[in-house]
Design brief:
about 170 residues, alpha+beta, 3 helices, about 45% helix
């Protein structure tokens, strides 16, 4: 796809498979005038390992570049989600602790996080205790939706940009 070439490389020995070799035990020589039946013991089984070559593919420089770009885009998307999640969590904590918006910090946090939570306000009613809002459901819903969207975007980027190598499973640390 897209003119990508893979060069096979043979490495020696990587995988070893056990092989059983059956060798007969020496039989004693008996001088008998007539043919006689000699009970020979069962042949001994010896375990030996035989190395088999494994053919692996080395990704081309273009594939390495695409994979690096994929990782970088995913890192940027996750970084943006982390900042949004931090703003929403601080907003949630300030509202749960009934912080006043008259302080500069609380005012800025509410102003920065309000556009992130605005699409989810009014979706559910907020529980109150003695007239004070103690739990804003829109914040939790916003966190869940943004986490799911971030996961989907990262997976799409991975599928579009990471080269396909049969038998390889990409595991990110």
């Amino acid at each position: 796809m897209f003119g990508i070439r893979r060069q096979p490389v043979v490495t020696q020995p990587v995988v070893e498979k056990p092989v059983q070799v059956i060798t007969p035990e020496p039989q004693p020589v008996v001088n008998v005038p007539a043919p006689a039946v000699v009970n020979a013991p069962a042949p001994a089984v010896v375990n030996q390992t035989v190395a088999t070559p494994v053919v692996t593919t080395v990704p081309s420089r273009w594939d390495q570049f695409r994979e690096a770009v994929s990782r970088r885009i995913q890192d940027i998307v996750i970084f943006i989600f982390s900042i949004a999640a931090l703003l929403i969590v601080v907003r949630f904590a300030l509202l749960a602790l009934n912080a006043g918006t008259s302080s500069a910090f609380a005012g800025y946090m509410m102003a920065w996080s309000d556009p992130l939570v605005a699409p989810f306000k009014g979706l559910f009613s907020n529980p109150t205790v003695a007239g004070f809002t103690t739990f804003e459901v829109a914040d939790v819903v916003a966190l869940l939706v943004y986490a799911i969207v971030t996961s989907i975007v990262c997976r799409i980027v991975s599928l579009l940009l990471t080269p396909y190598v049969p038998g390889r499973r990409i595991v990110r640390p």
